[in-house]
Amino acid sequence: MDKVVATAVEAVADVPEGASLAVGGFGLSGVPNVLIQALYGRGVGGLSVVSNNCGAMESGLAVLLAAGRIARVTGSYIGANKEFARQYLAGELEVELIPQGTLAERLRAGGAGIPAFYTPAGVGTQVAEGGLPWRYDGSGGVALASPPKEVREFDGTEYVLERGIRTDFALVRAVKGDRHGNLVFNKSSRNFNPLAAMAGRVTIAEVEELVEPGEIDPDAVHLPGIFVQRVVALSPEQAADKKIEKITVSKPEEERA
């Protein structure tokens, strides 16, 4: 099945108001910026987003966040995103912060058809006991707090029950993909993109290089095409447009000596 869609705008045309989205990327690496911009252009809002972070430097999900299009974020990192922090503390945004490894496994489990699993991460903290502020009231008080989760002992160790995550759509970016939706991810962009893709009921992938079926060695495929419904081929300019979050420059060798 040829899953290639002509444009990013066409690929996200049926994402409705209030949809839930799993979005790939780690920092600014592997973020599906073209699909996010296309979604921004559609004007839909009230979105529930599941992603490691919510964009930075006016890039990625920060575009939707700044426009007030996101109602809820499930993630593990606020970082240096000041607008994210402002909206959260002002009570404009509901935020569920969870351990990063738990987030990764919740996405994978949802995509694998596993409704829930036990993990030791978070036992003895508000992650398990409840009370984490999901939404503030804008005056410093907590308007909505996380509920307690089931804790069970296995072989003398306590574990907390976590639910798998499924979303209406998933947006991901791959370095290479074929027309059947088989994808390859580059380095750190492999952290969350495959997991987000698995969790989406409809997964849309933007690919930097589109190849024909059979051109990717099956042993090199990071995500099989069964998890992908739509593929958008990026232009060379779009593929090359990659931002750097923090630029560091090494001292000249003579100074290091």
Automatic annotation (TrEMBL):
SUPFAM superfamilies: NagB/RpiA/CoA transferase-like. Gene3D superfamilies: Glutaconate Coenzyme A-transferase (3.40.1080.10). The keyword tRNA-binding does not apply. InterPro entries: 3-oxoacid_CoA-transf_A, CoA_trans_fam_I, NagB/RpiA_transferase-like. GO terms for molecular function: transferase activity. Keywords: Transferase. Signal peptide: none annotated. Coiled coil: none annotated. It holds the Pfam family CoA_trans. This is CoA transferase subunit A. It comes from Streptomyces kebangsaanensis.
